[in-house]
Amino acid sequence: MEHVSLPPLSRVAICGGTHGNEMSGVYLVREMQKQKVDQAGSVSITTVLSNPRAVDACRRYTDTDLNRCFTKGLLSAPITDSTPYELKRAQELNSQLGPKGSKEAVDLLCDVHNTTANMGLCLIFYSIDWITLHIYKYIQSKMTSTPVRVIQLDIPISEAYSLESVGKHGFAIEVGPQPNGVLRADIFNMVKEAVDLTIEWLQGFNSGSTFEGGEVEAYNLVKSVDYPRDPTSNEITAAIHPQLQDNDFKLLRPGDPMFQSFSGEMVEYEGEELYPFFVNECAYYEKKIAFHLAKKITLTFPPISVKKD
Amino acid sequence: MEHVSLPPLSRVAICGGTHGNEMSGVYLVREMQKQKVDQAGSVSITTVLSNPRAVDACRRYTDTDLNRCFTKGLLSAPITDSTPYELKRAQELNSQLGPKGSKEAVDLLCDVHNTTANMGLCLIFYSIDWITLHIYKYIQSKMTSTPVRVIQLDIPISEAYSLESVGKHGFAIEVGPQPNGVLRADIFNMVKEAVDLTIEWLQGFNSGSTFEGGEVEAYNLVKSVDYPRDPTSNEITAAIHPQLQDNDFKLLRPGDPMFQSFSGEMVEYEGEELYPFFVNECAYYEKKIAFHLAKKITLTFPPISVKKD
Predict the structure, then answer these.
(1) DSSP string for B28-61
(2) Which of B29-33's residues contact partners 24+ apart within 8 Å by CB, and which partners?
(3) For chain A, which ranges sit under pLDDT 70?
(4) Which architecture, in CATH terms, is B224-294?
(5) Which of A31, A181, A245 faces B263 most closely, judged by CB atoms?
(6) For A244, which residue in chain B has the nearest alpha carbon?
(7) Sign of CA pseudo-dihedral B131, B137, B140, B141
(8) Topology of domain A4-217+300-306, CATH
(9) Residue B87 has pLDDT above 80, yes or no
(10) B79 at interface of A, judged by CB pairs closer than 8 A
(11) Closest approach of chain A CAs to the CA of B309, in angstroms?
(12) Among A283, A293, A284, A277, which residue's Cα sits nearest to residue A118?
């Protein structure tokens, strides 16, 4: 692919606590604020605790899931007395870090999340973005403590609902397994390393380095699978099968064990061969998702460097 | 030790959801209720969802920690408009399954809990109880899927604050690691096996079997250790060190890594050699406990059988 020149990426936002019980981002942002990290060479850094009310309560959210509030529609919805706290907070964050889709928006928004699923470290992003792919490639080449993967969601940016969509470029860093409300040092260290590498890459890019093109494997969301449920009570009647539990990104084949009912029966997977992820994520019980399924794709990206004035 | 005869144990209560986000007990009790399990040979079984309001909210508790409400004092406190929900519920449970200390109390109360700590399966009980030790020995001899240990707290029964103290005999089954709000099939299977083995032992005891005496190793609580905290904000400034994380019941020696501060420094353990447990338990952040420390003791128990009429 042909060489691409892009404008400098001088303003980055590092966000944590978008979900108030995902502790890596909460403590990373607090530590950066304590250390007064606001500049790294050519890169100015804004650190944001996205949902302080939920952080105080150590809950995912207080009224509604903040990380579903960043669609164009919701960001321009009028505020009334009955507007949920998180929607008001989304509009505040959009003013501070966006506005989404404008030239005032931060160049890169990186939002730190945790999952209870055994996913290692993943970058999650919407439509294909060369900056994100280059940063991903860089992080993957430097980190050895955990598998590093990339997940791509085919959602148009206007319908993109999560905080990172407010930046000109953006991705979520999703790291697990870590229980909600718990801080593990190993996971904290991974997140910190990924954020430090991101900032390091931005400095290299701004300083005129050329980054070679290449290709990466990515996981492309196909669909979600719910738990078996009792049709009247709607309560789940089975758990993720022990053979699927903790096996995120391991190919699921027809006939493989998928659920184990509370009375002991096994439920097999039926359907095409796909890769499960977010397997048994705590917050997805209420969203009626036992796990997501992805196909593996190859993404090709061009060599890039900064556009000279 | 000399042979001991004890009255039959004909009434057992199996409780879950005392903490509303510890899912193994919630789903075990619901499944037993669905299957209408209320009798197993000579044993009548009462299944109780202890804190239904917290279960609905998928939180540990709504007003106050239910499992700290079962002291003699709190159980006889007058109820007013400002009485926390959980204290009212504790008094209801005491009426249903106790009253604590009376001859009307259930013969055995078994309360199912989860922890985010890597503790395997533990039986936790107050002052030394031969029935509990025999059941522990039986479970340990039969279960191969996980380590089975016993933890003993030196608290007089009148000051004992947890639900199992309401029964004539009682223990908590504590199983982990499992995140709050998540149900893992492997952990569910362990809990179910331990409860089934408990009921099996009771049937054997009631039918006149003699159980040999012997000795077991137990962990006896010595003290608790808090996280390092910022003296002004009171926020934690370090996480459990990766070398201590997940190493519950592995002897902690002076000089061993204990915490890792967010700026990267290691904090060493100082003090006598002891065994850590409940390492990085989610619910203990607010109780200012990073982990407990225990000494290992040997408990000897006599052969027992049921007292004939």
Answers:
(1) HHHHHHHTT--EETTEEEEEEES-HHHHHHTSS-
(2) B29/B112, B30/A235, B30/A262, B31/A262, B31/A263
(3) 309
(4) Single Sheet (2.20)
(5) A31
(6) B185
(7) negative
(8) Aminopeptidase (3.40.630)
(9) yes
(10) no
(11) 38
(12) A277
What token pair was written down for A267?
A: 């439920």
Is B282 in the A-facing interface, judged by CB distances under 8 Å? yes
Residue A31, annotated ligand binder? no
Residue B126 has pLDDT above 90, yes or no: no
The ipTM estimated for the assembled molecules is: 0.93
Q: What are phi and psi of B185, to 5 degrees?
A: -65, -40
Question: Which of A27, A36, A183, A284 is most worth mutating to test chain B (most B CB atoms within 10 A of its CB)?
Answer: A183
| Residue A233 near chain B (CB below 8 Å) | no
Each residue of A178-217: pLDDT tens digit? 999 999 999 999 999 999 999 999 999 999 999 999 999 9
Kindly list the distances between the CA atom of residue A239 and the CA atoms of B57, B146, B192, B285, in Å, as whole numbers in the listed order: 19, 19, 14, 28
Residues of B in contact with A180 (CB under 8 A): 179-181, 282
In the block, residue with structure tokens 């979900």: A19
B128 band by pLDDT with thresholds 50, 70 and 90 = confident
Which neighbouring-strand residues pair with B173? B112, B123
CB neighbour list of residue A14: distance below 8 Å, 6 or more residues apart:
A28, A29, A32, A45, A46, A47, A48, A110, A112, A195
* Amino acid at site A256: D
- Domain with residues A225-289, CATH architecture: Single Sheet (2.20)
* Distance from C-alpha of B4 to C-alpha of B304, rounded to nearest angstrom: 5
Residue A155 has what pLDDT?
82
The token pair at B249 is 């019941």
The amino acid sitting at A1 is: M
Q: Write the burial class of residue B184 (CB in 10 Å: 0-12 exposed, 13-18 middle, 19+ buried).
A: buried
> CB–CB of A262 and B116 under 8 A?
no
**Over the stretch A7-41, which tens digit does the pLDDT of each residue have?**
999 999 999 999 999 999 999 999 999 999 999 99
Q: Is the pLDDT of residue B175 over 80?
A: yes
Residue B193 annotated as binding site: no
CA distance A276 to A249: 5
Which residue type sits at B244? L
Instruction: Say whether residue A242 is in contact with chain B using an 8 A CB cutoff.
Output: yes
| Domains of chain A, residue spans | 4-217+300-306, 225-289
Percent of chain B with pLDDT over 70: 100
The active-site residue out of B31, B104, B159, B174 is: B174
The one-letter amino acid code at B236 reads I
Contact assessment for residue B241 and residue B309, using Cβ atoms and an 8 Å cutoff? no
